[in-house]
Amino acid sequence: MVQNKFIKCSFGLLCVSGVFSSAMADIKISGTVDQSAERFVTKTNPGALTGTDNVVRRASTLANYNYLSFSGSQVINGDFKATYELSYKYMGPDTESRAPVNYLSHVGLEGGFGKLKLGRQWRPLFTAVAAIDPTQLAATPGFAGAGKSGTGLSGLAPEPNSNTITYNLPSLMPGLFVQVQKGFADATQGENAGGFVILTDGQKFFATYAKHTEKMIAGNYFAASATGTNGISTAKIPGTGATLAQLTVAGMNGLPHILYGGSTYAGGDTRESDGVAGYYNFGSFKLVGGFVTEKVNGTKAKLEMDVIGVKVPFGSSVNFGYLYSKASHTRSAGTKFNISGDKFLLTYDFSKRTTAYYALGKQQLEGGTATGNEFSSQINAIGIQHKF
Question: What is the pLDDT, as a whole number, of residue 51?
């Protein structure tokens, strides 16, 4: 049939365009372009040394990174639907020096049996619990347990889970959603599994229970999401291209506040996360709350995080969101420390796709691994986001 189209055409270019338009009719191209002017201030008190680091930078504060997605579906014999998504993050103006990397990427099949997807996908615990966050800033200071580049809670990691099989059961009743996931081990993650049960009407209420378990791989450890620091410097850290303040909350420098790592870091231990979360919309405001725990079985190491917040609309274009969170940590030795945070987000919608925003994220560590080794960090950002 393609050959006949070329034969009948008078202009080859138009023929090629027609063929590709027909072949790509079910492809959806979407993504986010998000840029802000962000000020990141870190204050530390590591024993005898006290200091402040102040970084002004360009960032994707609301989206965490820009991305580009290709997705679609194809009906098969009228009874089934094949689905797919291929996406990349760190696109466009995110950073000139960072190459795009794999983001959500999966293929699937839908039908009367439910939905089955294979590939790189969100963890069910993250999908369910982060859904209540009225600030949308799941990976910024203020969501205690979730740092900019990672998380102390494996189930709440704001990065897709690779090598997974996810199954959504057919809905047994309106508003009831059940999902289970199996993740296979690779070089960066251990064998894991999770799932959620969600009950919602989509408008007034939302309630969920979610779970995630993961075997720790060799060299891995169960640690806090944020770290103390053993010094202050505005110089670039060799080999990283980042300043000390940028690394502090990311959990990449200083004292790691390890909860549990085993004596040899040989791996094989199981870390287990459980979370409950929900919201209720009173009309004039939406109240949200949640509780998440994580522990390493057979040890004293554990993390307990509480979150509570509110979302308030002002007319049809302006929204205000606030979230308070506190994570209480117990190390394997039985000693304790706390990380608490506040997040604020004020948005103005120019249209359904374009939003201007002001974001504020604050995080504080108390009870460091050394006397007085505590820190606080704060992000202020003014930016604009466009979805397409």
Answer: 57
